[in-house]
Design brief:
It contains eight helices and eleven strands. The chain is α+β, with helices and mostly antiparallel strands and 261 residues long.
Length: 261
């Protein structure tokens, strides 16, 4: 940046002079001359002016970033509404259907409820929407039928109970998660035939949050076959252990404990 060129050159002179002093092995007279040169270089450096130049450039850069993010968010809103998807603008993030969208310069982070799904770099709002739609389709394709998911959940409870993770019939959602991921593998023909790392199907906490949300939004609610998935939210001290399920209506459900009754 041209505004900093003069300051950079003077700083380079200061650094070079100080390096010579630091490495000096000659006579006291030569060291004195080097120190004099270093002080002269330092005197030529206007630190307050250099700092102000950096502050001014920082303000311009911040303004450019904010404008870029604002343009991307507006583009995303138009694209989402044109596609018939629900869109909500929050102070620093957006909600598109079941997905949260957070921004940091060029980086975009997609969340499902409280759980991070993925992050990527994209400056186009319409391209962000394409990624959201692709992830939505991928998640929907991975959903199990309700009855099968319910059986997986019951199997996970049985494994968790054997490991002492169930108390009074209830399990914390994050404690239950690995058992759900494990029980879910048995729904895969490839894994049952040859249970290897290659046939393992990745299952994230974001996917569980999405699947639980879709399960609860069904016309039968949380019920399945005469039984029901119940949940309980956290107290203030345990909020960090809870999982926020996504909800397109703007009323997300926070879950800490889960049980089947």
């Amino acid at each position: 940046m041209s505004e900093l060129t003069g300051h950079v050159k003077q700083l380079e002179k200061v650094v070079e002079a100080l390096k010579k002093v630091d490495k000096a092995t000659s006579s006291e007279g030569d060291v004195l001359n080097l120190l004099t040169a270093a002080l002269s270089a330092l005197d030529g450096l206007d630190v307050p002016l250099a700092r102000q130049a950096v502050v001014d450039l920082q303000a311009l850069a911040r303004e450019a970033v904010e404008q870029q993010v604002a343009t991307r968010r507006q583009d995303l809103e138009h694209a989402a509404r044109a596609a018939g998807l629900t869109y909500r603008r929050l102070s620093k993030s957006d909600k598109v259907a079941a997905f949260g969208v957070d921004y940091s310069n060029r980086k975009v982070k997609l969340t499902v409820g409280s759980e991070e799904l993925m992050s990527f770099e994209e400056t186009s709002g319409s391209k962000v929407l394409e990624r959201i739609v692709a992830e939505r389709d991928r998640l929907n394709a991975g959903l199990l039928p309700r009855e099968q998911f319910f059986r997986v959940l019951k199997g996970a409870f049985a494994m968790a109970r054997a490991d002492g993770k169930v108390s009074d019939g209830k399990a914390k959602i994050r404690d239950l998660f690995p058992y759900i991921a494990a029980a879910r593998q048995l729904t895969s023909d490839a894994f049952r035939k040859k249970p290897t790392a290659k046939s393992y199907v990745d299952y994230s906490m974001a996917m569980l949050a999405y699947e639980l949300s879709r399960f609860g939004e069904h016309q039968q609610g949380w019920a399945c076959g005469g039984e029901r998935i119940s949940n309980q939210g956290p107290a203030m001290a345990t909020q960090h252990e809870a999982v926020m399920l996504p909800d397109t209506a703007g009323n997300p459900v926070q879950v800490l404990w889960v049980w089947i009754a």
